[in-house]
Design brief:
The protein has 65 residues and is of the alpha+beta class. The chain has a domain of 41 residues. It is built from one helix and three strands, in the order H-E-E-E. A three-stranded antiparallel beta sheet has the order 2-1-3. The longest helix has 17 residues. The structure holds zinc ion (ZN). The site of zinc ion (ZN) has 8 residues, from loops.
Length: 65
């Protein structure tokens, strides 16, 4: 009946897990050479070509559509 209701402790744990995932698991895509990788560092230069045109997306945040 209350499946979507999280108790406060569960909600806090979930938020911490999301924050951790965002911090350590960022998907990067280089617009210069097309290289793709996962990193914990926000928007680094591309390790393949050193290009600065890097798009970074938190892995849990991919759009649904
Ligand atoms: Zn590159």
């Amino acid at each position: 009946m209350a499946e979507s209701t999280l108790d406060p402790d569960s909600l806090i744990a979930w938020q911490a897990a999301v924050a951790e995932a965002d911090r350590v698991n960022i998907f990067c895509h280089c617009h210069t050479c097309g290289y793709e990788w996962v990193t914990s560092v926000h928007q680094p230069p591309c390790p393949q070509c050193g290009g600065e045109r890097v798009e970074s997306i938190a892995c849990w945040q991919f759009p649904d559509d």
